[in-house]
Amino acid sequence: MNSTGVSTEAALSTEALPAEERREHDWLAAMPKCELHLHIDGSLQPARLLELAEKNAVAIPHASVADIERACEFTDLQSFLDLYYLGASVLRTEADFYHLMMDYLRMCRQQNILHAEIMVEPQTYAPFGVTLDVVMRGFVAAIDDARREWGQSVLLILSFLRHLSEDSALDLLREAQPWREHFVAIGLASAERDHPPAQFRRLYSAARELNLRLTAHAGEEGPPTFISDALDVLGVERIDHGVRAVEEASLLERLRQDQVPLTVCPLSNVRLCVVDTLQQHPILDLLEQGLCVTVNSDDPAYFGGYLNENYTALRSALGMRREQALALSRNGFHASFLGPDQRADLLARLDRYAAS
Ligand SMILES: Nc1ncnc2[nH]cnc12
Ligand SMILES: [Zn+2]
Fold first, then answer.
1. Spatial distance between the Cα atoms of 344 and 315, rounded to a whole number of angstroms
2. Nearest to 105 by CA among 134, 53, 133, 140
3. Distance CA 277, CA 314 (A)
4. Counting ligands in written order, which one lies closest to the CA of residue 117?
5. What is the pLDDT of residues 15-25, one digit of tens each?
6. Confidence band (pLDDT; 50, 70, 90) for 7?
7. d(CA 210, CA 231)
8. What does pTM read for this prediction?
9. What is the pLDDT of residue 12?
């Protein structure tokens, strides 16, 4: 059992549920979905992590899957990031990056995630001598295979680490130019406390010049002013997390008026103690107030579930109704960085599902 109150096994299986709940969970699982907030390193499953640590001779202080699962008792964002960066340190070769991406894309297929916008964080691997070319060759090969084999739709977000300097971010943005066509947007992640959006003003302005779309984590652990600064100083189009907006009525009203998408991650918020329990999560209240909220998994290997488990947990904890689930999924497609034709195509698939 984890701190969400949902064991990973139970979250992944509906067998123990009463028949009606099982039917609703199956309906949610089959619903066409979109994931906009997923750190690829956060999809590294413990078994794969251990296998890669051994293959690449990386010493880690965990000997078994159970050991890693025990380490997933987080008290805040930083306590999670310590394990997350340790996990990512075992990735070293092009094949490692291929398999990491392919494992997640297979999960997309299984969970009816028709479109995924995936954060890639090359600064994480650089201290181990892993080059951007190694990382990108592996990721792009997996995406090409998934697109060819089952038509998976994927866009990549070049995500920068805010605990590192803006100069280091600008260096990476320059280094990434040969891979420009593979990125739709930039993002900003890692430790939010003590790293306000304004520290990355030049980065966002350079990315805008390159016609990249803009998003950033804000209002996960940081205060509501980080959300308004991300909008006003960085010029982002959507906010990753943003749940601390509930503390500031005028900000909520602005987000509603301007229909700024929030990529909310319910299970993550419980695991990282952003909210105390899922029952207290504000996502459905925000939806009912007319905000453009979406459901996402953030780091599924560490937080007890992928996208379907986030949707079904909202059903179990908050009694989410079918029309609310459809509205959340629709918001996801609307808030995506897809072009209009592809977005319309995927929304039509969701509409057909709703009518079936
Ligand atoms: N929830 C999160 N917040 C900030 N940075 C992250 N990197 C991976 N997961 C994150
Ligand atoms: Zn995140």
1. 27
2. 140
3. 11
4. 2
5. 788 899 899 99
6. very low
7. 18
8. 0.95
9. 52
Q: Is the pLDDT of residue 196 over 60?
A: yes
Please identify every residue whose CB atom is under 5 Å from ligand 2, which is an ion: 298
Q: What is the pLDDT of residues 57-78, one digit of tens each?
A: 999 999 999 999 999 999 999 9
Q: From atom 2 of ligand 1, which residue's Cα is the shortest distance away?
A: 190
**Where do the domains of the chain lie?**
21-191+198-355
3-class DSSP state for residue 116? strand
Q: Class assignment of domain 21-191+198-355?
A: alpha beta
The C-alpha angle 1, 280, 251, rounded to 5 degrees, equals 135
Give the residues across from 263 on adjacent strands: 240, 294
The reply to whether ligand 1 has any atom less than 6 angstroms from the CB of 217 is yes
Tokens of 276: 């105390």
284 neighbors 316 (Cβ within 8 angstroms): no
Question: Residue 131: helix, strand or coil by DSSP?
Answer: coil
* pLDDT tens digits, 147-183: 999 999 999 999 999 999 999 999 999 999 999 999 9
Residue 278 in contact with residue 318, Cβ under 8 Å? yes
Q: How far apart are CA 270 and CA 5, in angstroms?
A: 10
pLDDT exceeds 80 at position 10: no
| ipTM at complex level | 0.99
Residue 113, strand partner residues: 33
Indicate which ligand has the atom closest to the C-alpha of 40.
1
Task: Write out the H or E segment, with its range, that includes residue 29.
Answer: helix 19-30
Which among 156, 95, 103, 165 is positioned nearest to 130, based on CA atoms? Answer: 95
Q: Which amino acid residue places its CA nearest to atom 5 of ligand 1? A: 190
Q: What pLDDT shows up at residue 1?
A: 29
Task: Say if residues 333 and 31 touch (Cβ distance below 8 Å).
Answer: no
> What angle is formed at CA 282 by the lines to CA 277 and CA 286, rounded to 5 degrees?
165
